[in-house]
Amino acid sequence: MFGSLIDYWYYTGDPTYNSVVTQGMQFQVGQYNNYEPQNQTFDLGNDDQAFWAMSALDAAETNFPNPPSNNPQWLPLAQAVFNRQAQRWDNATCGGGLAGNSTPLMRVSLKWSYTCFCLLITA
After folding, report:
1. Cα(78)–Cα(35) distance, rounded to whole angstroms?
2. pLDDT, tens digit, for every residue of 19-71?
3. What is the pLDDT of residue 50?
4. Would the pTM count as exceeding 0.85?
5. Where are the alpha helices (DSSP H) in 13-45?
6. Under 8 Å between Cβ of 65 and 6
7. What whole-number percentage of the chain has pLDDT above 90?
8. At what angle do helices 46-61 and 74-87 cross, to 10 degrees?
9. Residue 16 per-residue DSSP state
10. Model confidence band, residue 7 (pLDDT cutoffs 50, 70, 90)
């Protein structure tokens, strides 16, 4: 949703929702500034995390106003997600890939082409 609102701002020049977008995207950054917030660590999927990163990339690429300088900026947030997910790349099965889940707490660990695609987009 935030990516859509960033695009709305970019194409219309209407800043009506900019503060809401910034607030929402900053709320989910987590303690390591990589979109792994404590409130989602049990069931956070790599694709979920990548959606946040893709919105941050969209913000950086369109020059969406960065948050105040004491908060994480858009491009470093997206880079942090890529770096975190690249560490999760698993060559042990299926010729490599990224599982749908991001934590071992989740019982099912399937490799999804979609999560691999999301990692590629954030590269």
Report:
1. 9
2. 999 999 999 999 999 998 887 766 788 888 999 999 999 999 999 999 999 99
3. 92
4. yes
5. 18-27
6. no
7. 57
8. 150
9. T
10. very high
Alpha helices in 1-123 (DSSP H): 2-12, 18-27, 46-61, 74-87, 113-122
- Amino acid code (one letter) for 112: W
For residue 85, what are the CA distances in angstroms to 15, 21, 26? 32, 24, 19
Single-letter residue type at 29: V
Torsion angle defined by CA atoms of residues 58, 87, 91 and 122, in that order, rounded to the nearest 10 degrees: 10
**Count of other CB atoms within 10 angstroms of residue 53:** 24
Two tokens, residue 69: 């300088």
- Return the closest-CA partner of residue 46 out of 96, 123, 111, 91: 111
The whole-number pLDDT of residue 106 equals 57
Helix/strand/coil for 40 = helix
